[in-house]
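hiii so um. not sure if this is the right channel but i have a protein structure encoded as tokens and i wanna go backwards to a sequence. like what aa goes where. can anyone help
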């Protein structure tokens, strides 16, 4: 905006336009997610515990306070619930606390306890649900989960359940804390089915939104590596 050189402005403008077009293209974003997300696996055998990482599973209550509003990452608790109902998991641990940062970021979802309420409503005994509600980030998810598991002397094998784009960082954090879990990927953002012609050529603001998630996660992973969390 402030550069006086017309040629520079023109080149910068075309570059920004190109980034916008690529970042809103379904095929391009889908390829990026396919390359970064870990693949889904089928469960084999029996597991003593499934750890659910919080984040996006619940939205803050709106007008009707009696309702529980699920978020776009609800697959994180639905899949472990199905595993428990199928007799493949003995217990479920929900980890995640209040992520508010003063007035900069306000989190009123009360996610951990709301997910527990949902699991109980789905028929899972309350005694089979463990709660860790102090963790504010993925590093603390791993740290506090390890502390709770050690105190209860829970033995493996253990499933780690989180969104596909988040699994690389989450798995690395748990391994760093000495808790070796089997990654159980849910909530995949990539599209495995064929794309239509319009998806190849028509820009989509939804893809920009998805791409922002991926870029934030990738930078987060890099930072975690630098500070020694992963």
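sure thing!! here u go:
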């Amino acid at each position: 905006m402030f550069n006086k050189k017309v040629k520079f402005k023109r080149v910068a403008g075309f570059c920004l336009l190109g980034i916008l077009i690529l970042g809103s293209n379904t095929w391009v974003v889908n390829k990026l997610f396919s390359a970064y997300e870990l693949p889904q696996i089928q469960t084999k055998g029996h597991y003593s515990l499934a750890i659910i990482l919080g984040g996006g599973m619940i939205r803050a209550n709106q007008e009707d306070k009696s309702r529980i509003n699920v978020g776009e990452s609800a697959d994180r608790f639905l899949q472990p619930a199905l595993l428990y109902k199928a007799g493949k998991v003995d217990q479920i641990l929900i980890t995640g606390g209040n992520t508010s940062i003063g007035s900069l970021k306000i989190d009123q979802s009360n996610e951990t306890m709301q997910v527990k309420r949902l699991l109980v409503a789905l028929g899972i005994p309350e005694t089979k649900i463990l709660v860790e509600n102090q963790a504010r980030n993925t590093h603390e998810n791993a740290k506090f989960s390890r502390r709770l598991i050690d105190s209860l002397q829970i033995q493996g094998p253990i499933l780690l359940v989180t969104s596909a784009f988040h699994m690389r960082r989450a798995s690395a954090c748990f391994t760093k804390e000495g808790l070796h879990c089997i990654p159980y990927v849910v909530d995949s953002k990539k599209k495995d089915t064929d794309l239509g012609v319009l998806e190849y050529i028509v820009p989509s603001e939804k893809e920009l939104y998805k791409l922002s998630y991926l870029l934030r996660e990738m930078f987060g992973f890099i930072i975690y590596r630098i500070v020694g969390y992963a």
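oh and The domain at 6-227 is CATH 3.40.50.620 (Rossmann fold).
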